[in-house]
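Suppose a colleague, Dr. K., hands you the sequence of a protein chain of 663 amino acids and asks what its three-dimensional shape might be. Before reaching for any lab equipment, you can write down a predicted structure in C-alpha cell form. Begin with the sequence itself:
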Amino acid sequence: MLIKSLRYKNFRQFKGENQIVFPCESQKNVTIILGDNTFGKTTLLQMFNWCFYGKAIFNDNPDFLLNLELSSAMYNGDNPIEVLVEIVLEHKGHDYTITRKQDYLKVNGTVIHRDAQLKVSFKDLSIGKTEYIEKDEDMKSVINLILPEDLSGYFFFDTERVQNVAGRNDLSAAVKGLLGLAVLENAIGHLGKEETKKSVIGSFYGELKENDDSKAADALEEVQKAEEECIYQQSIRDNAESEIDDYESRKECLERKIGDLQATTELQTKKDRLNRNIKSERSAVEEMYSDFPILFGDDSVWFFAQPLYRQAMEFLEQAKVDDKGISDVTANTIRELIKNGRCLCGAEIVDGNAAYVHLMEQIKFVPPESIGTTIKNFKKDIQRYNKINANDRFFNTVQARIANILRFGQRIEEWEDEIADIERQIEGKDDARKYQIELNDVKERIKEKTKVKELAIAKIAEVNSRKERFKKIYDNLSAKSEKGREIRRYLAYTRKVLKWLQEYYIEEERKIRSELQERVNMIFQRMYHGERLLEINEKYQTVLYSIIPETHEKVISGESEGLIRVKNFAFIAGLVDLAKDKALKVDGDKLENEPYPLILDAPFSNADEVHIRNISRELPMVAEQVIMFVMMKDWRYAEPVILDRVNQMYTLEKHSDTYSTIS
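The predicted structure, expressed as C-alpha cells, is then:
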C-alpha cells in the first residue's frame, strides 16, 4: 500500500479545500510536513483514521469535525457545509479512492451533523477500468483487507499519544497478519475441529450426525454446544487478558512517572506544609493586632501620660502649695458641723470658742475654697499607680507583642522565600498525585479483570470436561455406523493435513519471530547510542535488557520516555523491513505480502539530537514510503541526515487557534 494523495475540506482547523500529494521513489521516498505544536500535524494524521475507519482521536470534542470559524458563521436554514477527506492509494495493482464526507447544518441555533457517507472505488491499473463498491459492508471489508483497523495504529503513528506499542498485548495477531502467518492461521481455522460446526472437520461430524442414531446425534449436539460455550468463555478470558495487559502496561508507565516525580512530590508536600505554617502564623499575627485596642484602652493613658505627670509633680513641688486640707473633707462638711454645734469628737462648737475658730480656719483649705486637697489626692494617685508598676507592665506587654509580630513576620518571609525556591524547582513538572490516583484505579481494574479471567478459566475447564464426556459417548455410538466409517476416513485425512499445517505454522512462526528479533536489534543498535538488547516474546512484545560487561548477564533495563520512542521505532521499522521482503512459502508457493507506509506524527518527541539523526537515517531505508509531521526544533537535527531522501516538503502555517493552512 502506497499513499498517493490526501484531499480534505473544512476538516477541523483546515478551512476550505486542499490537496497534498505524496510522490514516492525508491531513493526519494520521504515526505516532510513541518509545523510546531497546535499547528495541525495531529489533525492531518487523524484525517487518515477518519477516512479509513470513521474515527478521529482528538482530546476535545472528537465527533465535531467542522472548522469552528465556519461553524460560528452559520445561520439557521443555511445550506449544509461539507467536511470531506479523500485518500488515493495504490494496493496490489489497483488504485483505490476512499472518500468519507459529512454534512453540517444549523438547526434551532445548534450546529449538528448528519451521518458520514463512505464511498470506495478502485481502478485496475493493468486495464484502466474503474469500479465502484455499492454496499457499505463491502466497502468496510475492502478497507480492512487493505489495512486492518487493528494494524492501523502501527502505520498511522501518533508518537505523542500512543503508549508503548512494542509492549501492547495485541501484537501477536497484528504481526502475524502483516507477515503472512494469518494465511496459515486461516487455513488451520478453516479445517477447524469437530466441535466447531462451520469448520471442515465440524461439517464431517455433522454428516456423521445425520447417519448415526439419535443418541449419537444428541451426544454430538452436546459436544458442539460445549465447544461453543468454550469458545465464548475463551473470548471472555482473552479479552480479560488483553485488558489486563493494557492495564499492566499503563500501570508500569504510571509507576515510572511517579518514580520520576518522587522528588517533585516531596517538594510539593514541603510546600503544602510551609503554606499551612504561613497561614497559622498570619492568623496569630492578626489575633495580636486585634488585641491592641483592648490593651491600649486599659492602660495606655497612664503610660503615655507619664511625662506630663513628671512635669506636674515638678511644678507642684516648685510651687510649694501647702496641703493643709483633710482628705475627703469639704467646706460643706465643716459648715454642717458648725450648724449642729458639736464636733464628731463630741467637743462643743460655739461661735468664738477655740473649736469654732479652728474650723473656720480649716475651711480655707478644703474644697471648694482650696485646691490643696485635690492636689494631695492627685499626688497620691500618681504614687499609687507607680507603686504597682502598671507602666512597666503595659510597656513589657506591648514590647513583647511587637517582638512576636516582627519574629512571625520574619518567619513568614523566610517560608515565602523557601516556597518561591520550591516553585522554581517544580515549575513545568507534573504533580505525581494525579498519577497516583489513576494508578490506584488501574490496580482496581486489574483485580476486577483478573477475577473475570479466573472465572472464565474455571468455566472452560468445566465445559471441556463435559465436552470430553459426551465425545466419548458419541465416538462409541458412531463407530457402529457404516457411513460413519467412510466419513471417519475423510476425517483422518483432514486431521493429517491439519497436523501438518499446525507443525509447519509453529516452525515458521518461530523462524519469523527470530528473524524479526534479529532485524529489530540490528536497527535498534543503529538508532540507539548505547549498549542494550531487545528480545521478542511469544506475544511479540519487546523486552529491553542491559548487559553486565563482567558477567555478560542480562538484566531488564529501565526505560526513559526517549528510550521507549527509540525502541518503538526500531520495532516498527524492523516489522516493516521484514514485511517488505518477507513472503511466506508453502511447498514453494509464495504467499502474497504487501509493503506498508509509515505515517508518523511528531516522530522525534522526547528524543535527543543523536537519536533524531539515527531515526532519520534508518526509517527511509526500511520503509518504501515515509510521511512525517515534524516540529521545526527537531527538523534542524534531522535535515542533514534525511534531506537527500526527501521528495516533497510542506509547511504548516497557523493563522489562529481555529485556522491553519499548508503550503
